[in-house]
Specification:
By secondary structure, the protein is α/β, with parallel strands linked by helices. It contains 16 helices and 13 strands. The strands form four sheets. It has a seven-stranded parallel beta sheet, with helices on both faces. Strands 7-10 form a two-stranded parallel sheet. Strands 8-13 form a two-stranded parallel sheet. The chain is globular.
């Protein structure tokens, strides 16, 4: 009798299957009948049908052992590791991609690799985030050249390009804007961060205060629903005409935060305050809310009392304090046939409802 891998036509290895991008991608692949392995340092078995693998991407021996019986046709790389400097980000995150592709190379099974990066490709890395003195022209377009700055996204891309030349597989790069979707313990999680912040405001009877810049409050923006990202990744990986391209990915609509912020406040039935003349970092506010969050979780029997596992205020501040409006051009994938769309208000409200239903927020 043939093994499941020998029988399966498409065998996916989702790297970072516990994150926002990876978990939504794994779920969609399973729905489409793929055999799906999820690789992460600390696997969670909360996706039915996902075959979890524990491995350390920085330890080659760990990867060799964990992947000894697995020969994926498609590798989807959706994770990264945050470090103190961009030089360390480059060293660590490029090694993660390189180690995995080197370990899989002798199997000769890989047909396609997809890498998820993001808009810091155009805006610059964390420690020079939109502060270089030269702001990029928006809408952001895939053909815009790399910035003359160290950037771990560029290093990850280069590892994919080099391995593709060596092993003959096709590739795609996907560049989402801020991802909106459910996960716990993710380093970049605006939707859940805002839901937790709003829940704290409701408990304390305080207004839902805009933490960001005037440019973001008044300017045009977009975001990326994690399910839309998953749809584009699968479409590109399975559409020959889309191979070997980098794609921006956002919901397909645009909005202004001065329009959306009051609607989020209304969903939670709380008052709000808009831009008041200065940036008011959310990280400063949330650093003092551990005790009140534990009170909320006890009162409502929520499943996660560790605020740091839910909220990533530092990253939300980076997004909302940008000194320019940021939106992405989707022409490249639209012209090739990717037409999936999501209303951004629905992205947030559906997430909030899911978080409430799953007893993550009250």
């Amino acid at each position: 009798m043939k093994s499941i891998q020998e029988k399966a036509e498409n065998i996916a290895l989702v790297v970072g299957a516990t994150g926002i991008a990876g978990s939504n991608l794994a779920t969609k692949l399973l729905e489409k009948g793929w055999t799906v392995f999820g690789l992460s340092r600390n696997p969670k078995n909360d996706i039915e049908g996902l075959q979890s693998i524990a491995a350390d991407l920085l330890n080659t021996e760990s990867l060799i052992s964990a992947l000894s019986e697995i020969a994926p046709t498609h590798v989807f790389f959706t994770t990264w590791m945050r470090n103190d400097t961009e030089d360390e980000n480059i060293r660590v995150n490029s090694a993660m991609v390189r180690n995995l592709l080197n370990v899989l190379s002798p199997k000769k099974s890989i047909q396609h690799v997809s890498l998820v990066t993001g808009l810091k490709h155009y805006l610059g890395p964390f420690d020079a985030y939109a502060t270089t003195g030269t702001l990029p022209e928006t809408p952001l377009r895939e053909e815009q050249p790399r910035l003359d700055l160290p950037n771990f996204y560029y290093a990850q891309e280069d590892e994919v390009y080099e391995a593709a030349k060596r092993d003959g597989f096709s590739w795609n790069i996907h560049r989402p804007h801020t991802l909106i979707g459910k996960t716990i313990g993710n380093a970049m999680n605006m939707g859940t961060t805002l839901a937790v912040y709003a829940s704290i405001c409701k408990k304390e009877g305080t207004p839902f205060i805009w933490p960001g810049s005037e440019a973001q409050w008044n300017g045009v923006s977009d975001v990326t629903d994690a399910k839309i990202l998953a749809d584009q990744i699968i479409w590109a990986a399975t559409s020959t005409e889309a191979h070997n391209e980098a794609f921006n990915i956002a919901n397909g609509d645009v909005f202004r935060w001065k329009w959306l912020w009051p609607k989020i406040a209304e969903w939670f039935d709380i008052e709000y305050e808009g831009y008041s003349g200065t940036i008011q970092p959310l990280e400063t506010v949330m650093n003092e809310k551990d005790a009140i969050w534990k009170t909320i979780t006890n009162e409502h029997q929520l499943i996660e009392e560790d605020l740091n596992q839910l909220a990533s205020a530092w990253h939300t501040d980076l997004d909302l304090s940008r000194p320019l409006e940021v939106m992405t051009d989707m022409s490249r994938s639209r012209k090739l046939g990717f037409a999936t769309y999501k209303d951004t208000k629905d992205s947030f409200f559906e997430l909030f409802a899911q978080l409430r239903n799953d007893q993550i927020i009250p």
